[in-house]
Amino acid sequence: MQVIHVILSGGVGSRLWPVSRKSMPKQYIPMFGDKSLFQLTAERSKPFTDKILVVGNKDNYLLSRADMFRAGTEDFIEITEAAPRNTAAAIAFAAFAVQPDDILLVTPSDHIITNEEAYANALSEAIVLASKGYLVTFGITPTKPETGYGYIECDGNNVLSFREKPDQSTAQSFLDHGNFLWNSGMFCFQAGVYLEELNKFEPEILETALNCWEGRQDGLLPQTETMLIPSKSIDYAVMERSEKIKVVKTSFGWSDLGSFESVWEHWEGQGENHRFIKNNCVVGSTKHVEFLGVDNLILVETNDAILVLAKTSSQDVKKIYERLEREKPELVN
Predict the structure, then answer these.
(1) Beta carbons within 8 Å of 156's beta carbon, 6+ residues apart
(2) In a designed cystine with 20, which of 13, 36, 207, 248 is the match (CB 3.0 to 4.6 A)?
(3) How many CB atoms lie within 10 A of CB 183?
(4) Rounded distance between C-alpha atoms, residue 110 and residue 314, angstroms
(5) What is the pTM of this model?
(6) Residue 40 predicted with pLDDT over 80
(7) In CATH, what number is assigned to the domain containing residue 72?
């Protein structure tokens, strides 16, 4: 039995437009010293795992490969999707590539974690549970009534329910109850157990994914067979339906850095005061910037676009991205 770190790297990071683009998604941008989120992800779990497996797509696999080399890892498994078909299928491909009793530690490539000791403890607990046949998810102790994350209602390691991203009042009620955790999108389980549960609840995903896997060439999955796979997340396909779910509760300084508000909070927590002018934040600009009579604003500048937003509107940047994708695709590519 081996512990395999599966890195999912197919996201675009549309809420971080204009910094994040299709040609350079947020996980590859060196925003943390000279390192990217992908590189930090690859480095973080090396002490606890035997091998790394990267599931990416044909548009970003060269970026992933370059960051793996920067992370000092040249021996890894690479699976390249012809098109993204969501996480249920992506994780199935990873499970096909290893032995049934191997434990998969599945993480996105674009999250930040600051407490390495708490992370190590959470991994140890999850691996023990996974070795007993459970599908483990990681729940983060919430620090505020966040509306951008899903929640897990729990009793110890037992999952009582999964909840969608809430509105502000519902998020506050979750905090008040005290037994709700942020859903981190990180998982740990044996490859064979995951495939059994996927077959139980979504046999069509398993069948079409396996057919696609069998047609791969040098790790590249075929386009035609890929498009036949139903697109469904692991949460909807398996985690919210299985009776083998456990949650590991942790506080390891986690953020998915999925919005400019979360980037603001991370920089603030790290004491990066040079990012702020009064109570406003500047991202990407090398110009001298002044703010007058306003606060809680974020100014984002790239060589071809400027975005000014209220900190509280960070989740809505995706709507701008989607509109530009239709009207001015050159600004999102």
Answers:
(1) none
(2) 13
(3) 22
(4) 17
(5) 0.89
(6) yes
(7) 3.90.550.10
